[in-house]
Structures are given as C-alpha cells and as structure tokens.
C-alpha cells in the first residue's frame, strides 16, 4: 500500500487530509513542519508527499528541493491556500509534479497522487 | 383682466409662501399686542417693539422674491392692532411704512453679506446680524419713524427724543427676537428624541431656575430699590449656563425669559427698574438688556462654532481611521483568502473522507462523531474570521470597553495568520500570564496591532531573514500595559525613528504612509504612547504603552 506523507502546519487541514487519504485506502501520515518531516522521513521515506506551500520557519518552497534530494526521490504534490501564478511555475520548475489549490476536491487530490505514483514508478523502472 | 392674471400667477408662484404669510400675520398681530403691553405709562413709552423684528426674522428666513407677500400679510395685522388703540389712519400707515423699512433694511443688509440660509452658526454671521439687523436697520428706520410722527403731528415730544426711544425699543427687539426666531426655525423635533434624559432635566432646571430668579429679582416687590444694582446680576449665572451648555437656541430663549421678566416688572412698577420718569426707566432697562444680550449671544455662538469645529474634526479623524483600516484590509486580502481557505479545506476533506468511509462500509459512529466535530470546529473558525473582518470593515463611533491586551493580541494574530502564513512568518507569543486589563476601543486597538504586525511582516518580505518571526510580548504593572512587536527585518536608520510616524511618510512602494501616524493618534487618544526602536542586525520593534485598568 503506497505511503503518503502530508506536510501542513495547519492542524485541522493536516488531520482532514490524513483522514481522507486513509479512507481512500492509502497509508498516510502527517507532519506539522518541514523539520518534523525531514526527521521522520529518515526512518521511512514516503512514496509521495502532499506539501503545503505556506508554512512558517521552513516554507514548502524551501522544503521541496530537500524532498527531491531524498534517496527515493518521492514525487511531491504541492497544495496551497494562497496561490499566485508565479508560485505555480516556480514549484513545477523545482520538481513538484502537481500544484493544487485549497480547498481540495478528493478526486483532484487522489488523481494527482496516483498520477504522481505512476510517473515515479515508471521513472524508477527506467 | 391682465392685472388679475398677473395676481393669479403671482399667487401660484407664491403658493408655498401661504403658510409663512399666515404665520407672519398672526405673529405680527401678537407681537404688536406684546409691544402695547410693554408700554410704560403715563406717557406711553415703548420698551420693546417686537413686530418689526419678527418681520425681519421672517424675511431672513424666506427668499427675497416672496418678501412682498410677507409684508402684505403683515398689513392687515398691523391695521387690526393699531386701529384698536385709536391712532389716526395716516399715522398707522406711516408706522407700517417705517416698520417695514426696518425689516427690509435689516434683512437686505444681512442677505447682502450672508449667504442663505441665514444661520447663527458662526461669529461672523452673528456679528453681521447684530450690526445690520440690530443696529443699522433700527437706526435708519427710527429717523423715518420720528419724522413721520412729527409730519403727521401725532403725539408730543421732541424729534430727537422720539428717535432715541424708538431706536432703543427697536434695537432691543431686533437683538432678542431675530436670533430667537432664527434659532427656533432650524430646530427639529427629532433633536428632542435624540436628547439624553439627563440633558432634558438640565434644560428644565435651567429654565425653572432662571424664571424663579428673574421673577424674584424683577417682578416681586420683595426687595427695596436699594438692592437694585445687585439684583441685576442675579440671572447672570443661569444665562452663562445657557450660553455654555445649550447653544444659541438655549441662550436666545433664556434671554427672552429675562427680557420679558424685566420689562414686565418695570411695567408693573416693581423691581429695580423704576426710574424717575418712564423715559429714564425705559432707557435703563433697555441698556441693561442690550448689554446683557449681545455678549451672551456672541459667547453662545462662539462656543457652538467651536464645538461644531471639534465635532467635524473628530468626524474626519474617524473617517480617516476607518479609511486606513479598510485600505489595510485590502492589502491583506490574499492572507484573508488563505485564512478562509484553510477551514474550507478541512470541512471539505473531512466530509469527503466520511463519504469514502460510508462507501467502504468501514465507518463507525465514533469516527463519524469525530469527523462531524472537526467540521463544526472548522466552520466556527471560518465564521469567526468573517465576524472579525466585518467588525473591522464597519465604520463606527469610538466605543470604550474593558479589554484584555493579551486577548487583543491573540485575536489580531488570528486575523493576520493568513498573511503571515503566506509569507512563511511565524508569530512568537511571549505574553504575560493572566490578563492585562485596559480600557479602549477594541476595533481601533486591533487596527493598531494589525498595522504593526503587517509592517513587521512587510519589513521581512524583501529581506531574507535568518529567522522569519514576529515576536509579540506583553507585560504590565500597576499603571501601564505594554505590548511590543519585534520583527527580524533590516530595521531602520535611527534618524528615521520619528519620521516613520509622520503622515504620508512611507517606505513601501504601495503604502499610503498613514498607518503608523493613525496608529499613534489612536494610541494617544487612549491615553497611551506608541514608539519604535531599531536594533542593529536584528530588526525593528514597535511598542505600545496603554494605561492599565486596575483589576478588582
């Protein structure tokens, strides 16, 4: 079962997304900050990261390249409650495979995650 | 036929003047009766002649094109009043001409200098009214009046004596009645409903007191003539009270009470104004009343003018404060969208998670209950953001209440959270334990705090700060409550420390430069201080000190 990590500083969102992903049959864990994620990821790297862009101290934008440097290079789905056009371009350029606006429709999020997992799997085979 | 048509047309044009004309006719007749009643015997010396003044006030309140209607309406009233006293018709008509001339000269001169509508709302207007209507018009018409008396040969007396007595009776009437009518003409019954009960009690107390003192001093044969000069001043405290507290309308009314009480006593032959001859009595009385009325009336106008200017300045300050608040909210609209999107995300994802669980048939009641609880909490959070936002958008009067400075900080931060989050700035709270009681306007103080937080956030935007935090500290002692906001931006040059608070000084490309200056005036209006400090290498801080409210 694919393991999805949710990184969002907002507790209610974090909890709701984790709940949604688990209800959709995925394994999911959530982290309140970039630091927390990086510490935990050392033990078990996720198959995909759902990453909030705007977080204090270490923003999603700062965390994104570090995730892409992990051993398994997990794909990243960026989510944001405050989107600006240049943010999207920047994130995609930095290696995110999707850029989604909050509030998130479950279909949209789940499709983005499964697309990311597929792309990563085919990338790994190559 | 043509004349008839013209009259008809004129009547149509002046249909709007029908009611005022009727009022003028009635008022003129009653005023003439009062004038007769206020005549000293045995040789009739008029102390106060109100019809001319009433006519002048009526002209001042209406457009010049309908003046003739009002003058025409006064004629039958004049004839009715004067012919009763057995004066020859020629003299009656002569007096009508001189009465009208006073009203016309006064109203015409005032209208030449004061734009309509004529109101006693500035010292300039009041001064012009007293000079033109109260001095020039009675003076000019007195010559005509006395001249006509001599020409027609009615009554006795020297020409100059006649001029003098007519003049002073007309002056007294003009300076007391014209302001009275003008003030009451702009009075609206709605003003009474808006008056707090305490004020109504004050008005009643003032007039009851004034009436009692005036009756005692001028109308009751209680004190001998020896006490006379001292008694003159007995009503003064009440008149000053009226001037200071009740404005022009109250002062003009109080003066009318004084005038009636004084003259009534003299006519009855009691009170301090009982001279050797009616001429002496009338002169003393008139000089006393004129000397009392003019300064008090001007004082009332000056005070009302000043308090209106203060009210306007206050209103403008409120407007500016509101405007800058709205501008600030506009600047942070992105952050506010973020702040609303978070709970919406939680609601949607929770609800859709429940849908998945129901579809999988793996949901249990406990989990469902937890999901619903989270949805409700997120909904309440969104409602709270909207409630607070609406409060900030609203424009209202300053409302002082007892507040907790710590709670204000938390509330403000919850609004700014979205903005801080989009800039990846973490608020750090170092609040004093317990509550820090202050007295203030919640919205205005939140505006100040929001302004300081957003300034700090903006200062760090361009700056790649080591640590993107805004630290909010609070502290308090018996006399002061302190709240400070420290950012980790580049700080500012020490010489700018005061310039930052000047209006229209800004370092932001889109800033108006009003935020800090308005913030400081808000804090000052709360009896507190707002200052800034720059700390080399670790940002700027802004500090609020507000008077502490002792908790019981």
How is this fold's topology laid out?
The complex is a heterodimer of chains A (126) and B (552).
Chain A: E1 3-7, H1 11-23, E2 27-31, H2 34-41, E3 48-52, H3 60-68, E4 76-80, H4 85-93, E5 98-101, H5 106-125
Parallel strand pairs in A: 1-2, 1-3, 3-4, 4-5
Chain B: H1 2-13, H2 18-37, E1 39-40, E2 45-46, H3 50-61, H4 67-83, H5 89-113, H6 123-152, H7 159-185, H8 189-193, H9 197-219, H10 228-232, H11 236-245, H12 247-268, H13 278-331, H14 333-360, H15 365-393, E3 400-404, H16 405-422, E4 426-430, E5 437-441, H17 442-461, E6 469-476, E7 480-487, H18 515-525, E8 529-534, E9 540-547
Parallel strand pairs in B: 4-6
Antiparallel strand pairs in B: 1-2, 3-5, 6-7, 7-9, 8-9
Helix pairs in contact in B: 2-3, 2-4, 3-5, 3-7, 4-5, 5-6, 6-7, 6-13, 7-12, 7-13, 9-11, 9-12, 11-12, 11-13, 12-13, 14-15, 14-16, 16-17, 17-18
Gist of the model:
The complex is a heterodimer of chains A (126) and B (552). In chain A, 47% of the residues lie in helices and 19% in strands. Chain A has 126 residues and is α/β, with parallel strands linked by helices.
Structure commentary:
The complex is a heterodimer of chains A (126) and B (552). Chain A has 126 residues and is an alpha/beta fold. Chain A contains five helices and five strands; from the N terminus they run E-H-E-H-E-H-E-H-E-H. Chain A has helices at 11-23, 34-41, 60-68, 85-93, 106-125; strands spanning 3-7, 27-31, 48-52, 76-80, 98-101. A five-stranded parallel β-sheet of chain A has the order 2-1-3-4-5, with helices on both faces. The radius of gyration of chain A is 13 Å and the shape is globular. The mean pLDDT of chain A is 89. In chain B, helix 4 (67-83) packs antiparallel against helix 5 (89-113), helix 9 (197-219) runs antiparallel to helix 11 and helix 11 (236-245) packs parallel to helix 13. The relative contact order of chain B is 0.06. The chains are: A alpha/beta (126), B alpha+beta (552). Chain A binds chain B through residues 9-10, 12-13, 15-17, 19-20, 22-25, 54-59, 61-62, 81-82, 84, 101-106, and chain B through 334-335, 337-338, 341-350, 352-357, 360, 362, 371, 374, 377-378, 381, 418, 420-427, 467-469.
